[in-house]
Design brief:
Layout lengths: L2 H14 L1 H5 L5 E7 L8 E6 L2 E9 L1 E3 L2 E7 L12 E10 L7 E10 L6 E2 L3 E2 L1 E2 L4 E5 L2 E5 L16 E9 L7 E2 L9 E4 L7 E10 L3 E2 L10 E2 L8 E5 L8 E4 L4 E2 L4 H10 L11 E8 L4 E7 L5 E3 L10 E5 L3 E5 L1 E2 L6 E3 L8 E5 L9 H11 L10 E8 L4 E7 L5 E3 L9 E6 L3 E4 L5
């Protein structure tokens, strides 16, 4: 074989051996990063997707007006090979450990080639999506927009594998992961919070190779974890043509009703009636504790509704006069953070009509009095705060009361607690921050 043929053969053998020779040899991969938050304070990491633990890392560099990452692939602990699927991640955290915390990321995916140096597509630094919390029954539902990534030359699918979700009672610290496995969707239901706690949520992207970013998005808005979904008040009332038809009812603490007319409209809607119909309710009212007088909104037949279309007050019960049978539901939730603070006036009456949670942990009038007293550190049978508790018996259209008679103790009807009814109390002192007990 002459020398020319030997040379051609050696060149051919060398070319066919390039993939094997690529392992462990020096190689530089780099890419340009843009975005309003890009700076030399950003960090980058680089890894082969099948070996994510072997990461290279460094700080973003700047040349002229361009920012770039640069990885010396030959420094991977396991030799690289042509065609290795790799990922480059750029990240930045602002205000870590503060309420104004924010996180940013960029990601680029390419297969390693024999291009020396190898330039990856440009990528953009973006803010991590922020979750939006909303009460959903007795849990909190989180939603967010999908994390975006830039196009890659080699399409291996979405470079975002999923997300981790974090929760804290503080906007600046204490965030703990609440998902057991990576969340692949853009929604998550948190059903493991503590009733009444105020929470903040934050999101962390997880990239292909199961590599988490290492810090979170900006904090979500705060949200109070809800109580049991037993806040609805179901109204099943029978009209009696030969007797009165007055009923006191509780209103859910958290609801969408603002005024008396909203309650009437909901009752009518549940019966297929127009919002302003007077076929179901002819009167709705409240007892104003400030003036110790009633406010009513009345149906006057062809004249329509007249009177005081009062604003509903959280924690107050209302009464209705009905003109036919009612089967309706006032939709809402119990607010575990709500507390009654009621003021005693020595110069006026001190009657209040209260809404109690439908999930209230009570059996009778005594248990309600005991709970009010316990909240003030008083004996269960004290008459220092409440001297009377009562209910309106819709069946008999009469009051039932349980009364404190001083040294004679309590007397009267120790009536049963009926969820959804309104309850009257007469004060003998200030009630401060009493939270009704729930089951």
């Amino acid at each position: 074989m002459n020398n020319f043929k030997k040379t051609i053969l050696l060149i051919a053998l060398a070319l066919t051996a390039v993939p094997a020779l690529a392992a462990g040899i020096p190689h530089t991969s780099y890419g340009v990063v843009d975005g309003t938050e890009i700076s030399t304070t950003c960090a980058w990491s680089f890894y082969v997707v099948s070996r994510p633990a072997e990461k290279l890392s460094g700080a973003i560099s700047k040349s002229g007006s361009s920012y770039f990452w640069q990885a010396l692939v030959g420094n991977l602990s396991t030799p690289w090979n042509l065609g290795d699927d790799t990922l480059a991640i750029v990240k930045k955290e602002n205000g870590g450990g503060t309420a104004s915390h924010a996180g940013y990321y960029a990601v680029m995916n390419e297969d390693l080639t024999n291009e020396f140096p190898q330039q990856y597509n440009n990528c953009t630094l973006r803010a991590i999506p922020v979750p939006t919390p909303a009460v959903s029954g007795s849990s909190v539902n989180l939603t967010w927009t999908a994390a975006q990534t830039d196009a890659s030359v080699n399409n291996h699918g979405n470079n975002i594998l999923g997300y981790n979700l974090y929760r804290s009672e503080s906007p600046s610290s204490g965030f703990a992961k609440i998902n057991a496995s990576i969340i692949s969707a853009t929604a998550y239901n948190d059903a493991a919070g503590t009733i009444g706690k105020t929470y903040y949520y934050a999101l962390e992207p997880v990239f292909r190779g199961n590599v988490a970013l290492g810090f979170n998005s900006a904090n979500s808005s705060s949200i109070q974890y809800p109580g049991p979904a037993q806040g609805n008040v179901v109204i099943n009332l029978t009209y009696n043509a030969s007797a009165g038809n007055l009923y006191w009812i509780s209103v859910p603490y958290t609801n969408t009703y603002s005024r008396a007319s909203d309650v009437i409209a909901k009752i009518n809607a549940d019966s297929g009636q127009p919002a302003d119909s007077g076929n179901k309710v002819t009167q709705i009212g409240r007892f104003d504790p400030a003036t110790q007088s009633y406010q009513t909104y009345d149906y006057l037949g062809f004249l329509g509704w007249s009177g005081n279309n009062f604003v509903l007050v959280k924690g107050e019960s209302i009464f209705i006069n009905i003109a036919s049978n009612i089967n309706a539901t006032l939709v809402g939730n119990h607010d575990p953070a709500f507390a009654f603070s009621l003021t005693y006036s020595a110069a006026a009456g001190n009657i209040y009509w209260l809404s109690l949670p439908t999930s209230g942990n009570y059996t009778n009038a005594v248990s309600i009095i005991s709970d009010i007293n316990a909240s003030a550190g008083l004996p269960a049978d004290s008459g220092s705060l409440v001297t009377q508790i009562g209910r309106w018996n819709g069946a008999t259209q009469t009051y039932e009361t349980y009364d404190y008679l001083g040294f004679l103790g309590w007397s009267g009807s120790n009536f049963n607690f009926v969820p959804g009814e309104g309850y009257l109390i007469n004060l003998a002192g200030n009630i401060i921050s009493w939270k009704p007990k729930i089951n």
